[in-house]
Specification:
The complex is a heterodimer of chains A (239) and B (242). With 239 residues, chain A is of the alpha+beta class. In chain A, strands 2-1-3-4 form a four-stranded mixed β-sheet, with helices on one face. In chain A, helix 1 runs parallel beside helix 3 and helix 1 runs antiparallel to helix 9. The longest helix of chain A has 23 residues. The radius of gyration of chain A is 18 Å and the shape is globular. In chain B, helix 1 links the parallel strand 1 and strand 2. By secondary structure, chain B is α+β, with helices and mostly antiparallel strands. A four-stranded mixed β-sheet of chain B has the order 2-1-3-4, with helices on one face. Helices cover 57% and strands 7% of the residues of chain B. The chains are: A alpha+beta (239), B alpha+beta (242). Chains A and B meet through strand 4, helix 3, helix 4 and helix 6 of A and strand 4, helix 3, helix 4 and helix 6 of B. Chain A: Homodimer.
């Protein structure tokens, strides 16, 4: 039985997984969990991931949540090329360092922009708050400064000369604000250059494919949320 | 030049690194970075960790931040016993799964209790209304429920029958509220039992030693706060008080 990956490409960590699996020719069954239709709240999916989040993996009887855990699991099980998670102790530590740091910085702040600009309006039926968006953008700006100063510096990729899980996890997160019309790459030439390198290392076609949904995220007023999902999101998005 | 670990045992992830190194007899120099004295903002420390946070590691010219990265680096370099980060692919994945989820669920939420009850009053001279603490405790309760339901279940430890990095990272975080009098183990027998098992696996003496500072935090009422530190923290404090 083939590995099942439960994904919605609206989600950044799902994109990382999708790209990683495709790039490495890892055979998997794409199980579409449509977030905007509340599929992740269904009992059926709850059996795969009791946390009711995507991405999730099912490999026979083994289920796994958390994109980083899944990426590492796949890299080990399918023996992917070394550069993704280098066997060199220090290089590997630098990948771990980024993967750890990013949760409450790049990921959190990137998400906040998406939530402020797209999700909250969808749930409450009102236009987004410009003050809240500005706050979210400023927070991401701080994180981006640290990203460039500490993690990227003058290197082609976060860890040395080749793409790793660190770059992959970073790029999908940074595409989320882009998808909502906040071009965080504007006026950041070093970041733009890094992005081009990452896109090329992944393969432009695969990168585009993975990002098609987020880059075309529909106008909120045209998407119908189920009442259960709306309630669930209202609770989740409480300020 | 040997391994240097830059720590303040007030910090949860520092305790995890400290306990791990001590338990595994990893030789290191304890470089005390006193947070209350704002030592993490000094230029000298900035050369070790530009993010100005503890814990940090220096091994020769190699520097490393982030406790998870440091723990994994030490486990590999010093070839620590398998149970800490099992070589079995699925068990290892379970440790990774917890370590990832931990960041935005247990970490931060447990630590907020220290801010609300001790640090904000210490830095601003203001006490916060009880609702603020209740809010934090309610949020933490949700995460603890998920912790018990998904990660612990009916197992002695998060991954099987032995302690791993997952348990270590979790326990040090959950001791933060204990230090300020929020006994999150009360009325949670399963969690309590797990805590005892973790303490025993670590060694009670080492566990106590690592937690001495946080368990006596209330006695720091008269501590001198570095004025520059107050300045640095001002925006964060304003945000937390909203």
């Amino acid at each position: 039985m083939v590995v099942e990956l439960f994904l919605d490409l609206l989600s950044q960590p799902c994109r990382a997984l999708f790209i990683f699996a495709k790039k490495n020719n890892i055979p998997f069954e794409f199980k579409h969990v449509e977030l905007l239709k509340g599929h992740h709240l269904r009992e059926e999916f709850g059996k795969v991931n009791v946390l009711k989040k995507v991405p999730a993996l099912k490999d026979g009887a083994f289920t796994l949540a958390e994109s980083i855990a899944i990426l590492l699991y796949l890299s080990r099980k399918f023996n992917t090329p070394d550069h993704w998670y280098p066997s060199d102790l220090q290089k590997r530590a630098l990948v771990d360092e980024y993967l750890s740091w990013q949760h409450t910085t790049i990921r959190e702040k990137g998400c906040k922009i998406f939530i402020t600009k797209v999700l909250v309006p969808l749930v409450v039926g009102q236009p987004f708050s410009p003050e809240k968006l500005e706050e979210a953008v400023e927070e991401l700006n701080s994180a981006l400064k640290q990203f460039e100063e500490k993690f990227l510096q003058n290197k082609p990729f976060i860890v040395g000369n080749e793409i790793s899980l660190a770059d992959l996890v970073a790029i999908v997160e940074l595409m989320q604000p882009v998808g909502c019309g906040c071009d965080i790459f504007e006026n950041r030439p070093k970041l733009v250059e890094w992005r081009s390198r990452v896109e090329e290392a992944v393969g432009k076609e695969l990168f585009q494919q993975a990002h098609e949904i987020i880059l075309n995220v529909k106008n909120p007023s045209t998407t119908q949320l189920s009442p259960e999902l709306r309630e669930h999101l209202k609770q989740l998005l409480k300020p | 030049m040997g391994l240097e670990l830059y720590l303040d045992l007030l910090s949860q992830p520092c305790r995890a690194v400290y306990i791990f190194a001590k338990k595994n007899n990893i030789p290191f120099e304890f470089k005390h970075v006193e947070l209350f004295k704002g030592q993490h903002y000094r230029e000298e420390f900035g050369k070790v960790n530009i993010l100005k946070k503890v814990p940090a590691l220096k091994d020769g010219v190699f520097t490393l931040a982030e406790s998870t990265a440091i723990l994994l680096y030490l486990s590999r370099k010093y070839n620590t016993p398998d149970h800490w980060y099992p070589s079995d692919t699925q068990k290892r994945a379970r440790v990774d799964e917890y370590l990832s989820w931990h960041h935005t669920n247990i970490r931060g939420k447990a630590g907020k209790t220290l801010w609300i009850k001790v640090l904000i009053p210490l830095f601003t001279g203001q006490t916060l209304p009880p609702e603020k603490l209740q809010e934090v405790m309610d949020e933490l309760a949700i995460s603890l429920k998920q912790f018990e339901e998904k990660f612990l279940q009916d197992k002695p430890f998060i991954v099987g029958s032995e302690i791993s990095l997952a348990d270590l990272m979790a326990i040090v975080e959950l001791m933060q509220p204990i230090g300020v009098g929020c006994d999150i183990f009360e009325d949670r027998p399963k969690l309590s039992e797990w805590r005892n098992q973790v303490e025993e696996a670590v060694g009670k003496e080492l566990f106590q030693e690592a937690h001495e500072l946080i368990l006596n935090i209330k006695e720091l009422g008269n501590i001198q706060i570095d004025p520059q530190l107050k300045e640095h923290l001002a925006p964060l404090l304003r945000k937390m008080m909203k």
